């Protein structure tokens, strides 16, 4: 096979990304559009259809990040996300979050809602004018209020609601948990979200006047602590170089292949194929420094690189030295016993449970 000269490899610098980006099912930055534009783009891998309804539009007058944001004037306008690639349900973990700037007023408005195509209001944060918010978690019986928290002050605020896939909801504002709520929820397989209004049994209302930047839906629980660091930049729109196994940068003189993105607990830490009769000998192995004959059917494996714990797992197989036609007696029982982090015993037995040499034996060791 012809080798590829390194001069033929085009190199790139490392790209910083969101390690969880593959779990993002919708990301709307509302940045980069011209003033008044109604073209909205989903920056997730799903490229969802996004509809700007009844006057919802891009505005260059305000932005948390970049040069523009979504503007809703609170008069029948909203944004609709259709056909989520991973429909949200009361049995799924998820995080819904975004940056919002609301005017100082006493109006009531909804930031977003999860809805079915036939209507029905689910998990909507409703902002009041009295320094409080109300969250509906699937039915009126499971709604709850958080107070005091006032985001109607004309400033940008980060609001997030997380769900753990059971009946637990957390509500965060600007990095602080304001509510840890446990209650019933009754919605399932909902694949539609509206930003800026309430959709209650086919009746639309509680439109919210606001600016919005970086609205993101992820199908896992991003925030679990009582506080978190509020994002200091726009949400990343790719996974970058995270977990990629070949990294070549602009100063590279070769290709580095690593295992940093592989779960080490899934990889065999040592394995061996050996002759267990007469003078024992290793046929092939990995991470085995030596093989020792301890007696009939008894062997020791010394590991080149020790395990971090003696609590490891092993599996083995073996045959005896019978060369006759009675194949039922040729298979042997094998046990793998970790004696220390660098020493493992392999023991062979015949079908009657007596120690017996293994003509050909294998052993695999798993551990951290």
Protein model, in words:
The protein has two domains: about 20-220, Jelly Rolls (Sandwich), CATH 2.60.120.200; about 265-365. With about 375 residues, it is mainly β. The protein contains no helices and 29 strands. The strands form six sheets. Strands 1, 3, 4, 6, 13, 14, 15 and 19 form an eight-stranded antiparallel β-sheet that branches.
Concise overview:
With 368 residues, the chain is mainly β.
Mean pLDDT: 82
Roughly what percent helix? under 10%
Uncertain segments: 1-12
Note the quaternary state here: single chain
Number of helices: 0
- Described by the principal axes of the CA atoms, the overall outline is elongated
Number of folding domains? 2
Encode the helix/strand succession as letters. EEEEEEEEEEEEEEEEEEEEEEEEEEEEE
Q: Helix and strand layout, with pairings?
A:
Layout: E1 24-28, E2 50-53, E3 57-59, E4 69-73, E5 78-81, E6 93-101, E7 109-110, E8 112-115, E9 121-122, E10 124-127, E11 133-136, E12 143-146, E13 156-164, E14 168-173, E15 176-182, E16 192-195, E17 198-200, E18 203-205, E19 209-218, E20 246-247, E21 256-257, E22 268-275, E23 281-286, E24 288-295, E25 298-303, E26 313-319, E27 331-340, E28 343-349, E29 360-366
Antiparallel strand pairs: 1-19, 2-5, 3-4, 4-19, 5-16, 6-13, 6-19, 7-10, 8-9, 8-16, 10-11, 11-12, 13-14, 14-15, 17-18, 20-21, 22-23, 22-29, 24-25, 25-28, 26-27, 26-29, 27-28
